[in-house]
Structure formats: structure tokens, C-alpha cells
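Q: How do we represent a protein-ligand complex in a form that can be generated cell by cell?
A: Start from the inputs.
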Amino acid sequence: MTGSHETNESQASALCRACGLCCTGHLFIWVKLRPRELDPAEALGMTVFRSDPTQRGFSQPCPLWKGDCTIHASAHYPRACLAYQCKLLKEVIAEKTALPAAVDIIQQARGLIRELEPLLPGLPNPNFRERLVARIEHPQRFTELADSEAEFQRKAGDLLAFYARVFGVNDLLEKM
Ligand code: SF4
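Then emit the C-alpha cells for the protein with iron/sulfur cluster bound:
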């Protein structure tokens, strides 16, 4: 590994530690696991689902995110987590975006999320993205929120456009 690569790697880690949105349920609803990863993930406390062979994985928010991934160096670190790089992270690694600018962008994302949070339904599942999808796809189920529909549509549109432009995440039901 060259010195330049080491610098890029450490900037990438710093960005991921400053963010975590791909672990906390703000970007994704679930993460795919390989069959041999299912039991270890469950033993680690992840909520694993496996009945549909085409959709085996764990639900977000991931309980192993504690301001950093607590199993990053473990043999049980999921391959999907190892492989995933959002668009912003790729830009930092390629030195197209400087780390301080990228951290500012994360703060902008957090601001948009904070504005949207009070407009989301309080479902048993705490996943932000899942609650966002629920209100977008089934507004009639949340009549108690009807007064804020126009505000919700505008803010949800802003956040989803931001997700697509900055993180490269387009699909509402996208998995990591
Ligand atoms: S295992 Fe680590 S990288 Fe993967 S979702 Fe959980 S905290 Fe994030």
C-alpha cells in the first residue's frame, strides 16, 4: 500500500466514523447476508431474517453501530458491509472531494433528516427509511399526519434527491 493510499484509507475511515447513515437505518432498510453469515450475525444480536432465500439479511438500524462499526475487524464482518461504498466515500477516496467538505455534506444530510423526523409515523420498527417509505406509499394510513402532507412531500423530496445526488442511493427499498 502506498502512502497516498494510506492517506485515502484513513480519510475514508474518518468519513465513515463521522457518518454512519448506512448503518443506522437512514439510508437502508436491510443488509444482505450470505447463508454462512446468518447464524453469526444472529449470535451478535442482529435481527436476521432468512425465510425467503432471495432476501436473507439483517434489519437496520444495526445494533453493532456505536459511533463506529464494532465488528469492523472481526471475522464476522459482513461481506456486504465490507463491499459497500457510497458515492461520497468514493469521491473522497478518489480525492475529488476533500474530507472537510464531505463532513459538511454529512451534516447537511443530518439536517434534512432532523427536519423530516417529526413528520414520520411512529411505527414499531424504528427504521427511519422504512417509516419514510410507509408514509410515501400509504399516506391514507396516517390520517393523524394529514395536515403536514404538503410539508412532508416537499421535505421527503428534498431528502431523496439529496440521497441520490450525494450518496448514489436511488431506490426507496434499496438494500446495502
Ligand atoms: S455490521 Fe458494521 S458496517 Fe455493517 S451495518 Fe452493522 S455497524 Fe454498519
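The beta strands are 30-32, 48-49, 57-59. DSSP finds seven helices and three strands in the chain.
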